[in-house]
Amino acid sequence: MLFIFFPIFFLAGILSIIYFWQERRFSMIRTCYIAGAMCVFPIIANEAFQYIWYKKAIPEKIGITYPISTSDETGFREGCGTIVFKLSAETLAMIKKDGLKFFAGATQGRGHPDEPYYAYAEWQETPLPPDWTSEGSWMPCSELSHSEHAAIVSAAKAHGAYYTTKEEGQLVLIPSLGYIVYSFFG
């Protein structure tokens, strides 16, 4: 998404710098601040947009606090990505208390209440199916570090985590790490 807007903001920033520098006799430091802000703003706006957009795919019952990692690749038609959110303390406490029963009814993305595309199957306890945990098959387009990826896969192979699927996507909730991983391809 950022690749579409960055050239536009960059060009607008350069033109603004030239205008202010020549017409208003702004100092070079002030000009640099303006240029920096115009280059950084699209990046921050894109991160905020991604958080808001991908949060909508997580069922309302699952409390999340902030993104650990957001990585996706999108095009005009299809895309893929892996988004890791930190779970809220309340959600972790309820899962510890209720286990799999906690997930009853948590089968629809919070921001898409009437869209079948964001309807999830019933939750199951891990371990994940073996074909999910082979290198690269479950978390497409991930920019996680090797150690983060290994920790998530290792926890998903063991008992004590939970997962569900939807059309072109998966959710894996790992209480031991305090993460929920949303991955999609398509």
Offer a concise description of the structure.
The chain is α+β, with helices and mostly antiparallel strands.
Describe the structure.
The chain crosses the membrane at residues 6-21, 33-54. Keywords: Membrane, Transmembrane, Transmembrane helix. 39% of the residues lie in helices and 22% in strands. By secondary structure, the chain is of the alpha+beta class. The protein has two domains: 2-52; 59-185. A hairpin with a 4-residue loop joins strand 1 and strand 2 (79-87). It is elongated.
Compile the SSE list and pairings.
Elements: H1 2-23, H2 28-55, E1 64-74, E2 79-87, H3 89-98, E3 124-125, H4 146-157, E4 162-166, E5 169-174, E6 179-185
Antiparallel strand pairs: 1-2, 2-6, 3-4, 4-5, 5-6
Number of helices: 4
What is the straight-line distance between the termini?
A: 16 Å
| Helical fraction | 25-40%
Structural class category = alpha+beta
Q: Could you tell me the mean pLDDT?
A: 84
Main beta sheet: 6 strands, antiparallel
Radius of gyration: 21 Å
Count of distinct structural domains: 2
Residue windows where pLDDT falls under 50 for at least 5 positions: none
Keywords: Membrane, Transmembrane, Transmembrane helix
Q: What features would you highlight for this structure?
A:
membrane, 4 helices, 186 residues, transmembrane, six-stranded antiparallel sheet, single chain, alpha+beta, transmembrane helix
